[in-house]
Amino acid sequence: SVGDGKENLCGILLLGVIAASGLPPYLADRGHPELTPKVFYGALINNLFAKSSTVYKPAASCLGAVLQALENNDPERIELHSLLQDALKKLSDGTDTSESKLIWC
Predict the structure, then answer these.
(1) Closest by CA position to 25, among listed 74, 73, 91
(2) Of the candidates 47, 70, 59, which has an alpha carbon nearest to the alpha carbon of residue 14?
(3) pLDDT digits (tens, 9 = 90+) for 29-73
C-alpha cells in the first residue's frame, strides 16, 4: 500500500520543475548502480496510487513533463512509457476504486 505519499510531494514538485526546465530528469548515479531508470521512474509512478489527490495530481503532471522532456527515441522515454501503460492498466482495471484518479492521470 502506498499510503498518502505526502512525504514524496516536495521531490515530485522539484522533479516537475527540473523536467519543465528542459533538464534531464534522471542522471545515472555511479555510487548507486541499483537506481536504474526503471527503479527511478517506477518510484515516481507509484505516487499515482497514493490516496491523497495532493500527491497523485502533481505526480501525473510531473510524469507528463518528464515525457515531454525526453526525446521520442530516448530509451528512457520508451521504458517510462511502458511503465506508465502498466500503471494505467492497474488504475483502470478496477483494483483502484477512484475514477477521478484515472481522469487526472
Answers:
(1) 74
(2) 59
(3) 778 888 899 999 999 999 999 888 899 999 999 999 999 988 888
d(CA 103, CA 76): 25
Please tell me the pTM assigned to this model.
Answer: 0.80
- Classify burial at 59, counting beta carbons within 10 Å of its beta carbon; exposed 0-12, middle 13-18, buried 19 or more: buried
- Identify the residue whose cell numbers are 506508465: 84
- How many other CB atoms are found less than 10 A from the CB of residue 17? 11
Cα–Cα dist 33/30, whole Å: 6
Phi and psi at residue 5, to the nearest 5°:
70, 10
Which DSSP state fits 51? S
- Span between the terminal Cα atoms of the chain, in Å: 19
Written as nine digits, the cell of 52 is 491523497
